[in-house]
Structures are given as C-alpha cells and as structure tokens.
C-alpha cells in the first residue's frame, strides 16, 4: 500500500516541505512515483520517517542523521558505525535528561517555596481577621 505526500505528511506529523527537504538532502530516499508522477510513500518510508522524527526530537543534528542515512544504504558494512552513532547520541540524550531533571528540581523547589509563602500569607490574613 502506498500513500500520497499529503497523507505521508499527516501520518508522520511532518510538513510536505519537510518531506521534500529530507528527500533533497538525502535523509529520505526519493519515493516511488505513480503514473501521474506524484510521490507514493510506502510503509517502509513511514517507518523511516518515524525514526528520523524521533532522532530530531532527541536533538540529533541533521548532519549526524545524514551520516546515519548514508550508512544505512551500505547495509551491514555500515552497521558498526550506525551503532556507534546511536550510542554516542544516547549518551548525549542522557546528559540532556539529567540536565532537565536538575532543572525540574529547581522548579519543584521554587513552586513549593512560593506555595509555602502563599500559605503563610493566607494564614497571616486569617489570623489577623480573627484577632
């Protein structure tokens, strides 16, 4: 089963322009074309787009994604380097997660601090009103 570029965009969550861009820079193989010359995307194309989207969401640079895509075309001979790219990127993602967790701790502290101030303020008003 194949789908149009508009359907591929909708299913992948990417814009039509992004799909064309990914094709132009070599991240996405040019899809098959129908009799009218329109792009026909396969389920394999959509799976690959889902992977690319995940990698972009984790902050993988386009340059690294392009290297990975080129190695993917080589098949097994490129597997070791592809694995290395993913291992390196996983380490970077873990660092970012740790960074974000530290930021969350600060936010949690501040939220609790301001909640405590509000409770103290409300308690002070309540005591003053009953005094």
Automatic annotation (TrEMBL):
Coiled coil: none annotated. SMART domains: HTH_MERR. Residues 2-71 form the HTH merR-type domain. Keywords: DNA-binding. InterPro entries: DNA-bd_dom_put_sf, MerR-type_HTH_dom, MerR_fam. SUPFAM superfamilies: Putative DNA-binding domain. GO terms for molecular function: DNA binding; DNA-binding transcription factor activity. This is Transcriptional regulator, MerR family.
